[in-house]
């Protein structure tokens, strides 16, 4: 019946299809006008695919948590009822037994109280009343929907999903979204609704209503975060994208501070720092409402960063936020960087005191090269992935590879993330280390082996193919490089250079470059592709909706897009083109 209705909707709109192009992605199809009226970017297929994979895993985990909570409550009730029955059977027991049973009752009450507290941290709450009620399907909000493609894919491809609410503040976008909902048939019409409204106002007027809130703006999401963290239910998920990478990566540090409350540094790790700045910003907004975040997946892909965090409410757990934040000190002469923790805790007599972090962690001048430090942050220095979630998401993607148009890319990214060291913030670049010393570069396997042989851990990073995460301190890293240069001498350099100062010191650690067993990751050993090239040219950001495409956008969109616009305008007669221009308030003259 659904297929017939879908075919019917296509037949009805077939008279108007000459002005539109049908775009199919996954199981959803949308109608795109030849002009740039509503934003659509083919590149974001990676973003949408990975979001669907995370959403499927979230629904599965949500169900497991619900069933675990029910079983715990059932066991607690059974324990209390059995104790009550034993008390009725033996009312003349000794006082010692009564004291024991009272203690047991108090213990069970404490368990019940703990469970009631944990309910607020679970993704769903158990409704009051007798009997067990089924878990409701998750309600999803897409705050900035544009054409509605993401909302339609959620509705058509995620089996256990409930209602999907798509919002936009642009009339042309909402009309396009509603047209696409009808075009996709009965399933989409039943599950997806489109509203013309300001997403910030809508989220503020619907507190703790949505299990999943998806923010994917054109640019910075900072204006939407305060209302978004209030709209998510306890244990729900916030999916957030930021595409203003020039700001987040240090191109405009003062702008980044005004939007995200953090100052970026321009290092090789700048893209991972962008992820951690965004997470720290979301945590800051959540803390204002006695809430906190738990990141499950954080990805830097193409030209944007994307984070998936769960949001919980707990005034006590919120106090741990300073322990998850750090400042970053980056040497201006070499690649040395150090983290300054924001806060610390002291335990005394079963109580925890929260205190400011000790500092400074570095002197005025770098101990390796003698140069000054730049200071950035604060950033999120706690883990940015939940490895259990990553494993589940990757397994789901591999089991349904035919349903993900960008399977190759997202599986490669998830595989690399699954092998990252979760507790090591930021990373080093082997090529940058060698550039500082003006020496030839050792292979990644040799360098990783030296770090492992020295007793430390090391891994790659999904952000940069040349990046290396390690818990080895910087003096160990430079000792390894000094030993390498002794075997591979360099030309004499001016003594004031950072590399010359570093090499002038004798290594304390004698590096062992013998190949270690763990020098290759499992993916590398199996020769699994981890960093794939772009599938086509001009694979990147697109022009904002409503802007007129001109010849200056050829480098961004390609000549094909420009030719398509020119042909469309030549095909229309002049009066119609003028009338359309006058009637369409979103077009830019």
Structural class: alpha/beta
Shape: globular
Number of helices, where a helix is a run of at least 4 consecutive DSSP H or I residues: 21
Q: Give the helix level as a range of percent.
A: 40-55%
Mean pLDDT: 83
CATH class of the domain at 428-526: Alpha Beta
- Name given to the CATH homologous superfamily of the domain at 428-526: N2,N2-dimethylguanosine tRNA methyltransferase, C-terminal domain
Quote the CATH topology of the domain at 428-526. Answer: Phenylalanyl-tRNA Synthetase, Chain B, domain 1
Which ranges are low-confidence, i.e. pLDDT below 50, for 5 or more consecutive residues? 1-15, 92-131, 564-589
What CATH architecture of the domain at 428-526 would you give?
A: 2-Layer Sandwich
Give me the Rg, rounded. 28 Å
Largest sheet: 7 strands, mixed
With strands numbered from the N-terminus, the spatial order across the biggest sheet is 5-4-3-6-7-9-8
**What is the terminal separation in angstroms?**
45 Å
Q: Could you tell me the number of beta strands?
A: 17
Beta-strand residue percentage: 15-25%
Pfam families: TRM
EC number: 2.1.1.216
GO cellular component, one term: nucleus
GO molecular function: metal ion binding; tRNA (guanine(26)-N2)-dimethyltransferase activity; tRNA binding
């Amino acid at each position: 019946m659904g297929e017939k209705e879908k075919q019917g909707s296509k037949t009805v709109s077939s008279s108007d299809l000459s002005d539109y192009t049908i775009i199919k992605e996954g199981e959803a199809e949308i109608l795109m006008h030849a002009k740039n009226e509503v934003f659509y970017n083919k590149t974001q297929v990676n973003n949408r695919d990975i979001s669907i994979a995370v959403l499927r895993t979230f629904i599965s985990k949500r169900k497991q948590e619900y069933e675990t909570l029910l079983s715990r409550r059932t066991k607690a009730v059974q324990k209390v009822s059995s104790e009550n029955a034993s008390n009725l059977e033996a009312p003349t027991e000794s006082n010692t037994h009564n004291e024991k049973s009272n203690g047991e009752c108090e213990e069970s009450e404490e368990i019940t109280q703990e469970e009631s507290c944990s309910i607020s941290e679970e993704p769903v709450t158990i409704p009051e009343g007798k009997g067990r009620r089924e878990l409701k399907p998750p309600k999803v909000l897409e705050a900035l929907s544009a054409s509605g493609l993401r909302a339609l894919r959620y509705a058509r491809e995620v089996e256990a999903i409930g209602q999907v609410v798509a919002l936009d503040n642009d009339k042309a976008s909402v009309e396009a979204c509603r047209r696409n909902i009808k075009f996709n048939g009965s399933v989409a019409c039943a599950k997806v609704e489109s509203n013309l409204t300001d997403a910030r106002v809508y989220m503020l007027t619907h507190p703790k209503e949505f299990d999943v809130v998806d923010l994917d703006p054109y640019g910075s999401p900072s204006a939407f975060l305060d209302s978004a963290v209030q709209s998510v239910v306890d244990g729900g998920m916030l999916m957030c994208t930021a595409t203003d990478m020039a700001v987040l990566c240090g191109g405009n540090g003062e702008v980044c501070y005004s939007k995200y409350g953090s100052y970026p540094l321009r290092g090789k790790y700048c893209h991972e720092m962008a992820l951690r700045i965004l997470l720290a910003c979301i945590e800051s907004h959540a803390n204002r409402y006695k809430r906190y975040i738990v990141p499950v997946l954080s990805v830097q892909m193409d030209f944007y960063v994307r984070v998936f965090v769960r949001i919980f409410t707990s005034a006590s757990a919120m106090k741990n936020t300073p322990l998850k934040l750090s400042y970053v000190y980056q040497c201006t002469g070499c690649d040395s960087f150090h983290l300054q923790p924001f806060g610390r805790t002291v335990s005394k007599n079963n109580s925890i005191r929260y205190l400011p972090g000790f500092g400074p962690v570095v002197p005025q001048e770098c101990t390796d090269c003698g140069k000054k430090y730049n200071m950035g942050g604060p950033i999120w220095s706690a883990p940015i992935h939940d490895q259990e979630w990553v494993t589940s998401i990757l397994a789901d993607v591999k089991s349904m590879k035919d349903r993900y148009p960008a399977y190759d890319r997202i599986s490669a990214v998830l595989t690399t993330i699954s092998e990252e060291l979760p507790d090591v913030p930021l990373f080093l670049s082997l090529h940058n280390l060698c550039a500082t010393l003006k020496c030839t570069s050792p292979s990644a396997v040799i360098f990783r082996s030296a770090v492992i042989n020295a007793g430390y851990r090391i891994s790659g990073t999904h952000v940069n193919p040349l990046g290396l995460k390690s818990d080895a301190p910087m003096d160990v890293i430079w000792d390894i490089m000094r030993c390498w240069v002794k075997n591979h001498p360099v030309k004499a350099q001016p003594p004031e250079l950072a590399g010359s100062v570093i090499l002038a010191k004798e290594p304390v650690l004698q590096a062992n470059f013998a190949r270690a067993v763990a020098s290759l990751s499992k993916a590398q050993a199996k020769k699994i592709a981890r960093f794939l090239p772009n599938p086509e040219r001009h694979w990147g950001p697109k022009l904002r909706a409503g802007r007129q495409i001109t010849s200056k956008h050829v480098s961004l969109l390609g000549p094909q897009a420009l030719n398509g616009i020119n042909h469309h305008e030549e095909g229309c007669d002049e009066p119609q083109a003028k009338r359309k221009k006058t009637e369409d308030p979103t077009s830019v003259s």
